[in-house]
Amino acid sequence: xxxxxxxxxxxxxxxxxxxxxxxxxxxxxxxxxxxxxxxxxxxxxxxxxxxxxxxxxxxxxxxxxxxxxxxxxxxxxxxxxxxxxxxxxxxxxxxxxxxxxxxxxxxxxxxxxxxxxxxxxxxxxxxxxxxxxxxxxxxxxxxxx
Length: 145
Fold this sequence. Notes:
2 strands, mainly alpha
């Protein structure tokens, strides 16, 4: 018999994820001809940049504002661009099916967002937390530590 009025008490649970990422061959970042576009975007927007998570929440109380903001490749990381299935990318970003243009798109505003250090590389950051947990963190205060 179920007891719908019972609640599970607040609790903490450790989580870890271990898997292997298979990076395609890619050039070193220093030789990327589109890196100048990334740097131009950084220069053009850094003075007014805000953490995308804080902006989404309209609350920066859990953002690390003691360090400079960091630019994140939102959809496709630089190191993965040579492995992109262009038909899949084209569905979400029409006009990007030309293999010669992928590198430029990867370093463009369509694929970049500013994040504070905590939301980029911290325990609850997009490069650390599972995707579902990172998404939930936008709505649950203090979710990940």
